[in-house]
Structure formats: structure tokens, C-alpha cells
Amino acid sequence: MSSAAAIDDNEFMRAFRGGFTSALRWHQLDDLWTSLRQCAGEGWFLYAVGEAPPETAAGAAQVQSFIAEIDKLLRQEHGEDYCGIVYADDMSQPAFVKIYDPNNLGVSCGYSENPPLPGWIMSKLPPCDLPATQVLSANRKRWWRRLFGA
């Protein structure tokens, strides 16, 4: 089996390519964060796309910290009266969340041959290394490393 075929058959990649719903409005994002906070200790992998995928799930305190920090970042840098850049497989019982970087949106919704990768992923599945189709900015690398001491 080729490495491309192995990646396509990967459970994480199947979930990544699955159906997602957008937290279009900020109050919907608040509701999603509430759902995620309630299951923070349930084996979430926190993946900054462009960094090495985590090999172990984050602890509940790390998940709580990530939610607080990413919420602050999104509200500061996404200068819109709507959210629309956070997607979950299930808004009330999420197992996979894609968070797009407000500074690298491209075409994050709709159709594109090469849609941008999310900036961050929260997943209950161990992530595989997503193709690096975007360069992670130095600011984002510093932000991630400050948050997790990587």
C-alpha cells in the first residue's frame, strides 16, 4: 500500500474529511466551548497544524487553557460580527473540531481545489501529520509554544 493510500485509509483523515457544522455566530461558539469544557478530560489531542502532531492526549487543564486562549485569539483577530471559522463534527457532543486561523482563511468554506488547512485541530483521534500546504507564521509558532512550552 502506498503512503498516500495509507493516509487516505487513516481514521483521523476520514474524520477530517467528514461532515462539519460551523459555529457561525459568536454565541454558537460559546455553546461549543461549553460542550468542550464539559468533556475536557476525555482524551483530546490538540494539534497546531504545521507543528508535529501530538503523540499523547492533552490533560483537562491543557484543554481548558487552550479553549480560553484560542477564544481570546479568535475574538481579537477575527474582526467580524460573526464567527464562522470554527467547525465541529457535532456541536453538542463534539469529537473533532477544526479552527481556522483568522490570518490565513483563504476559502475555508465553499468549494476550493486547495482549501486551506485549519490552524488548529481538537480531536479525540490521534492526528496524523497533515500535508504542509501552508507555512505557519512565526507569530503562531511562538503563540503555540508559549501556550504549551513546546
Characterization of the model:
This protein has 150 residues and is of the alpha+beta class. It has one domain (3-148). Helices cover 36% and strands 11% of the residues. The protein is built from five helices and five strands, in the order ααβαβαβββα. Strands 1-3-4-5-2 form a five-stranded antiparallel beta sheet. A hairpin with a 7-residue loop joins strand 3 and strand 4. The protein starts with a helix and ends with a helix. Mean pLDDT is 84; it is low at 1-6.
Detail the topology: elements first, then pairings:
Blueprint: H1 3-8, H2 11-16, E1 21-22, H3 26-38, E2 45-48, H4 60-77, E3 86-88, E4 96-99, E5 120-123, H5 138-148
Antiparallel strand pairs: 1-3, 2-5, 3-4, 4-5
Overall residue-averaged pLDDT value: 84
Please describe the biggest sheet, giving its number of strands, its sense, and whether it closes into a barrel.
Answer: 5 strands, antiparallel
Number of helices: 5
| Series of secondary-structure elements, N-terminal to C-terminal | HHEHEHEEEH
Work out the number of β strands: 5
- The N- to C-terminal Cα distance equals 33 Å
Structural class label: alpha+beta
Rg to the nearest angstrom?
15 Å
List segments where confidence is low: pLDDT < 50 over at least 5 consecutive residues.
Answer: 1-6
How large a portion of the residues is in β-strands, by DSSP E?
A: 5-15%
Q: In order across it, which strands form the biggest sheet?
A: 1-3-4-5-2
What is the helix fraction of residues, given as a range?
A: 25-40%
Shape, per Cα inertia axes: globular
Number of spatially distinct domains: 1
